[in-house]
Amino acid sequence: MDFDFFEISLAIVAVIVTWTQVKRRISYTVGKSQDNQVVVDMEASASLPSSSSAVLECKYDVFLSFRGPDTRKGITAQIRDRLRRSGIITFMDEPDLRVGVTISPTLIKAIKESRFAIVILSQNYASSIWCLEELGEICLSKEDNRILPLFFEVDPTDVRHQKKSFEEAFSKHETSGRHESDKLNQWRAALSRMAKISGWNTSDYKTHEELVDNIVESLRSKVPADAIEFTNDFQAFGATKEATNKVMKALTDDKITAVGVYGMGGVGKTSMVRHVAAQACRNGTFNHWIIAVVSQNLDLKIVQGTLADSLGFKFVEETQAGRADRLHKEIMGKEKLLIILDDVWERTELSKIGIPTYNELEKCKSKVLLTTRRLNVCNAMKCHEKISLKVLSEQDSWTLFVRNAGTISFEPTSFEKVARRVALECKGLPIALIAVARALRDEDQEEWEKAAERLEQSQYVNPNHEKDEDNAFRCIRLSYDYLKNEDHKSCFLLCCLFPEDHNIKIKDLFRYAIGKRLFRDAQTMEVARGKLVTVVKYLKGSSLLLDSEEEGCVKMHDVIRDTAIQIAESEDCHWFFVKAGCGLKGWPPRGLHEGCTAISLMRNEIRKLPEEELVCPNLLILLLNGNAELSEIPEKLIQNLKELRVLDLSNTSISVLPQSFSLLTNLQALYLDDCGELIDISVVGKLNKLEILSMRPIWKYDVFLSFRGTDTRKGIANDICNRLSRSGIKTFMDEQGLQVGDVISPTLIWAIKKARFAIVIFSQNYASSAWCLDELREICLSIEDGKILPLFLSS
User: I need a surface site. Which of 187, 257, 276, 588 has the fewest CB within 10 A?
Assistant: First the structure.
């Protein structure tokens, strides 16, 4: 998110004004007026009549209504994450649902299918027609005891009587002339109703964490703990029910601390353990659950970071051991915590991650639940209980298959027989059943006949795969073959260039797609980007890509990624070489083929490239980004890559681009983002076909806060940090443990260099701290004057 000087300055001014008002209020106490009281009991039955008395089956426990620019990346995301980790199924819309002025049917359906609605009434809530329409639907669908308002930095009186920002919003709605008076009155009535319902007010809590804790506890007491059949992508059939019951029983056994779930790739282990974790939190077995993907190429830093994010803290420690100690301490400070390690491939020392020993976890009533493809991994990890998740029965396979085949009726009987043949070839594997059913749902009987014959006759001979895995490969390959066109196929294959279990940014996928000359019929870049978004949605609808928890990203299941790599390695028109995120320390000695069209070595630890020429005359894409210590591109290496279209050297330590770059006569996209050591790119002027040159610094933070801890840490500095963060402005404020000794911490120097702006809070004793003065010197060296914002506090 980009913020200019004006936006950040406004946010700071708002904090200072608020702080001044707070200080004035401390000196005397004023009793609240009756209008400011939250007087109606949450369980009270007196409420406006609901238009729908019918009890609908609830797909969600909670629907979140909020003003996106105000709170999406702040309090709303915190509430969503905490509720979900507590097993409370929460609906929070995605940005692309809010298009146009009419509320989406998807949102209306979600409101009706939710037990409760939390309405986050923020400063600009009423300025959004969408929010007001959403609130109207909530009032129509739910009684008062199902609506939970959160007055987020607004006074309930202002909401009730539409004063201040609410008054301004309605004034604009009225003068626009777009809304009838009846509609405006409905919105006003809905807001007035909110102010009369018991809920939460940020002014009643010292911190947002305390507020969110209260919200979660309140919802946990209200949401029924009974088991449900479906949780998002989890669907309970015979095999999954059996395994689920066994896992639940093991997790409630005080003698068991480590549980292993094993089964082949694509059988549904991750969905099942997520479902179990949610249910175990709902029934009180655990207070909280966290999950991290270990994957085939273990990256300790990523696993530690994922667990830390879930626990709500950021590492300041620089070493692996330091982070492990901190994580250990945080976990031991929790009670009844379920730690899920997903996709474990080999024995992993939990202490290196920072996970306490099984005996230590037992003392705080916490447990480890891991998933793996192999029973021997469960044994190596010394799991106390080992549970197999088997493939689906023939009948359950058919049920899942039909559920994903759309509206197709499979009539006459001969059509159903063909469809059953296709389903049978998926061998009870959910990932294959879903992918094949969705691939064929728009096809006629003749096409289904061809598909059945292909699956029955196809034989994958791969010594690295077991028979069950080959069944998955051939089914997913069939789905790939039925994709609409070459652009869809190419985008699907481009996704396998990223590391396993990676959050694939749509913008990065777009970079490589444009470089590969996809969507050439688009008149503008914006149109091309829209086409890519459409393709990604289609691939998600085909079950070939997955949603990511990270906004603006997608993910690829590891079984599907393996299939994509196999397809790309075997087709003459593609032939990819992919070793992304594998921990490589040098150029791969084997496996490169002269016919390669794409090489992905991103996110490794490669420091040096070979001096000899790279012989890949058809190479279109070369990805070396994320090799942070790579400092040189040898002259000879790239001199014969005449067809190269995309080169990504982002996040490397390269200082000079060699003169042989001028021989890359077809290069169209060059990415040098976050190359802080780069001093000479003069050769770029000779690249006549270059269309995209990106040299963006990758800012980790929008703002770095410099302050004297004993003066302002618990006062204005903390307030500024909180307000900026709630506005979506990423702010770095050091923790007390960083300021030890006389020398400024390398972590702080790094944070300064990764920040766009710096706010320097000059308090009375700022200059008495050598640490602060060193910090200020680093700020002056790293950040230009126009982006250093001083704040002078009067004594």
Answer: 588
Q: Is residue 785 classed as helix, strand or coil in its secondary structure?
A: helix
- Per-residue pLDDT tens for 207-247? 888 899 899 888 887 876 543 334 445 667 888 899 999 99
Strand 288-293 relative to strand 385-388: parallel, antiparallel, unpaired? unpaired
Q: Taking each helix axis as running N to C, give the angle between helix 394-403 and helix 430-440, from 0 to 180 degrees, rounded to the nearest 10.
A: 40
Torsion of CA 428, 430, 432, 434, to 10 degrees: 120
Distance CA 752, CA 744 (A): 11
**How far is residue 619's CA from residue 180's CA, in Å, rounded to a whole number?**
61
Write the DSSP assignment of 390-445 as a string of letters: PPPPHHHHHHHHHHTSTT----SHHHHHHHHHHHHTTTT-HHHHHHHHHHHTT--H
Q: What is the pLDDT of residue 279?
A: 87
* Mode of pairing for the β-strands spanning 646-648 and 385-388: unpaired
- Residue 682 corresponds to which amino acid? S
**Using alpha carbons only, what angle is made at residue 486 by residues 480 and 489, rounded to the nearest 5 degrees?**
35
Compute the distance between CA of residue 234 and CA of residue 11 in angstroms, rounded to an integer.
43
| Threshold 0.85, pTM exceeds | no
* Total residue length of the chain: 795
Closest CA to 367 of 243, 240, 253: 253
**How far is 129 from 125, CA to CA, in rounded Å?**
9
For tokens 């075997």, what's the residue? 570
E strands in 539-629: 546-547, 553-555, 576-578, 598-600, 621-623
Residues 510, 532 contacting (CB under 8 angstroms):
yes
CA-closest candidate to residue 712, choices 733, 727, 731: 733
Supply φ then ψ for residue 423, to 5 degrees: -60, -40
The DSSP letter of residue 49 is: P
Which tens digit of pLDDT belongs to each residue from 12-45? 544 454 444 434 333 322 233 333 333 323 333 3
Residue type, 684: V
709 token code pair: 């801890």
**For residues 152 and 201, what is the distance between their CA atoms, to the nearest angstrom?**
6
